[in-house]
Amino acid sequence: MTERTFSIIKPDATRRNLTGKVNAVIEDAGLRIVAQKRIRMSRDQAEKFYEVHKERPFFGELVDFMISEPVVVQVLEGENAVARYREVMGATNPAQAADGTIRKLYAESVGENSVHGSDSLDNAEIEIAQFFTDAEIVG
Ligand code: DAT
Ligand code: MG
């Protein structure tokens, strides 16, 4: 089934000028970038986005990191896009990520792991709506 998922190229990757390299992995995997913009996330946006993790010990650090530098938010479209992008990203901890995945190639640590991808179709819809209007998504 054709799906849309939400992606963020995180500050550790934008800082190192890796946006194009990450996008190449995404596109080579058959996912189409149907919306994309570079933004600076506000603290409110980051706290809301990661609300599910707010009781975790790393929450403060995670929010500080996400607002530390610009990020690139994206909508990706393709066959089984949610699961496919999770595969392409690799494991949360780059030390455990498979060869060829974005996190294996580029991530620096579990906290600064280069990309976000939605973990379910329902969350993809919620996350996309937090950053994009329908008119900004061009399939
Ligand atoms: P994912 O980003 O693979 O969906 P997640 O939803 O469990 O992983 O966590 C969200 C982000 O929180 C993750 O990308 C980086 C940060 N994080 C997760 N576990 C962490 C940990 N043990 N220490 C520091 N940061 C962590
Ligand atoms: Mg997650």
Could you give a quick summary of the protein structure above?
It contains seven helices and four strands; from the N terminus they run βααβααβααβα. It is of the alpha+beta class and 139 residues long.
Description:
This protein has 139 residues and is α+β, with helices and mostly antiparallel strands. The chain has a single domain (2-41, 71-136), classed as Alpha-Beta Plaits, CATH 3.30.70. Helix content is 40%, strand content 20%. The protein is built from 7 helices and 4 strands, in the order βααβααβααβα. The protein has helices at residues 11-15, 19-28, 43-49, 59-66, 81-89, 102-106, 121-131; strands at residues 2-9, 32-39, 71-79, 115-117. Strands 2-3-1-4 form a 4-stranded antiparallel sheet. It starts with a strand and ends in an 8-residue tail after the last helix. The model has no long low-confidence stretch (mean pLDDT 98). The site of 2'-deoxyadenosine-5'-diphosphate (DAT) has 9 residues, from loops. The site of 2'-deoxyadenosine-5'-diphosphate has 9 residues, from loops.
